[in-house]
Amino acid sequence: MHTANPGRRCGWLAVTLVLAFGLLLAPALLAQETADRETATAVVGVTPDTWRLVRSGEVDANFRDSRADSNYNLVNASGEGWRQWRNRWVSPFGLIAIGGMALMIALFYLLVGRKTLDEPRTGRLLLRWSVLTRALHWSVATLFILLALSGLNLLYGKFVFRPLFGDAIWGAMISASKVAHNYLGPLFGILLVVLLLKLLRHNLPSREDLTWFKKGGGLIGKGHVEAGFANGGEKVWYWLLATAGVAVILSGFVLDFPNFGQGRDTMQWANLIHALGALGLTAVALGHIYIGTLGTEGSFEGMKSGYVDESWAKEHHSLWYEEVKESAETPPAPAQSSPPEDGTLPQRPT
Amino acid sequence: MAQMKFMCDAERCIECNGCVTACKNANETEWGIQRRRVVTLDDGLPEEVSISVACMHCDDAPCMAVCPTDCFYRTEDGIVLHDKDLCIGCGYCLYACPFGAPQFPQQGAFGERGKMDKCTFCAGGPADSPEEEYAKYGANRIAEGKLPLCAEMCSTKALLAGDAQTVADIFRQRVVQRGHPDGAWSDNPRASVDDLAYDATRQG
């Protein structure tokens, strides 16, 4: 017994060792074999160059997409950039521009107040805006306000109205905003261009505009600054609309009609231009609305009836007044009668 | 809670479009809508590679961040879904999405977009009844305890769907099998030709 034990032990030990060794080695050998086979048979790996191409967003002749009518690349890397620009820069810019303008106007009104006529009205009226111009102005103005409100809702509404009204009302609201924005937009664009063309001759830059700007439109120093039919400020508003406004219209068309094959990158740019331009114009429009209504006595009635008082013309547009003062007319006792059609009605300057 | 993710192993995808068909069949999406697509790079060249793409259910989803109606939400499984009753078809999600996932049925005139449709990870969407849910969003296999049909039917198991951790474990195992003994963290013998996954944080 005593002599047999070590032998038996050795035998068991050998078996155990072999088994253990085998168990330990076999998977490693197998794995090595599998790995070699995989490496030998696998397709050439995806190279860094391939991924670089993907990241660049470029699509070469050997790019295939199984989706019907798909013109997309694999990874739209510019989307994140657009998101950051829109959410981090454009959105706050709009709030600051529009909110800041509203605040400045409120402060100006409280501190300086309404600009009243220095001289009493003479009662003699001058034709300033023709029926066509007024119709165009009010159409464009109404559309502008509707587009601004729906546009602001598209950008900021979800932070205010969804928590306020709940999904049902918010859904209807935002849907109406989008439909209104998309269908009224082109109409606004066309009418604004017509209005701009109609008013172009009044808004060509002239030498007296420089003096007007130097005196801050009359805010700096005493007395009124000379001005023709349109003063420097009005011309700035005109040219803002003729540049930024036209950019907003064009980018709007790009966004509104996605059926011309324009890509996502194009629409990202169009969206940024559209939003920046429209928010900026909305801010400036607040100033235009203030000056045209509350801010200046006699301005609103000009765009309402077409006629302005002689004193208003003399004070605000002295050069224009000199041109047209001969045509001032005294309306019949109950005003608002239509002007006679025998050629004696006041002529607009040419 | 699980964090549901798709992963397509580009070295296994054989461009059979089975996932595309499975998706279309499971969700019965309308004409023109194809939630999943297979992209082939360098088609016909030795380095040809294919990858199946749909909504990747991002943790920080750009669509969600830019949506004007705030119609997106993330389920507790990390699946990004949207409410078609709120969608207005503005297309912003499409501008922002890295993967071209949002699609719009063309119903109106002037190219006006219909309500956005995208992969739901086969998790349906908000609706009052299962019938309405199926009609609007397609199948809700997640509610039945099943994974998305595209991945379930992938013939080479290139397309994986499921909890991110499980998917990552499977892929790591494959990478080791392919000859990267330590899961490719170092000493990659094929480093010169093989990038295992696209690393968006690495520039250039």
UniProtKB/TrEMBL annotation, chain A:
Keyword set, alphabetical order: Cell membrane, Electron transport, Heme, Iron, Membrane, Metal-binding, Signal, Transmembrane, Transmembrane helix, Transport
Gene Ontology cellular component annotations, sorted alphabetically: formate dehydrogenase complex; plasma membrane
Domain Cytochrome b561 bacterial/Ni-hydrogenase: 128-305
Membrane topology: Multi-pass membrane protein
Obligatory cofactor(s): heme
InterPro entries referenced in this protein's UniProt entry, alphabetically: Cyt_b561_bac/Ni-Hgenase, Di-haem_cyt_TM, FDH_cytochrome_b556_subunit, Formate_DH_gsu
Pfam families the UniProt entry points to: Ni_hydr_CYTB
Region (Disordered): 323-350
Signal peptide: 1-31
TM region positions: 89-111, 131-156, 183-200, 236-255, 275-295
Intracellular or extracellular location(s): Cell membrane
GO molecular function list: electron transfer activity; formate dehydrogenase (NAD+) activity; formate dehydrogenase (quinone) activity; metal ion binding
Any GO BP annotation: formate oxidation
NCBIfam families cross-referenced by the UniProt entry: formate-DH-gamm
Family: Belongs to the formate dehydrogenase gamma subunit family.
Name used for this protein in its record: Formate dehydrogenase subunit gamma
Protein species of origin: Bisbaumannia pacifica
TrEMBL record, chain B:
Residues covered by the 4Fe-4S ferredoxin-type domain: 4-32, 45-77, 78-107
UniProt cofactor(s): [4Fe-4S] cluster
Pfam families: Fer4_11
Keyword Iron: yes
Record keywords: 4Fe-4S, Electron transport, Iron, Iron-sulfur, Metal-binding, Transport
KW Metal-binding (keyword) present: yes
GO function terms (MF aspect): 4 iron, 4 sulfur cluster binding; electron transfer activity; metal ion binding
InterPro entries: 4Fe4S_Fe-S-bd, 4Fe4S_Fe_S_CS, 7Fe_ferredoxin, ET_IronSulfur_Cluster-Binding
PROSITE patterns from the UniProt entry: 4FE4S_FER_1, 4FE4S_FER_2
PANTHER family named among the record's database cross-references: PROTEIN NRFC, PROTEIN NRFC HOMOLOG
UniProt name for this protein: 4Fe-4S dicluster domain-containing protein
Native organism: Bisbaumannia pacifica
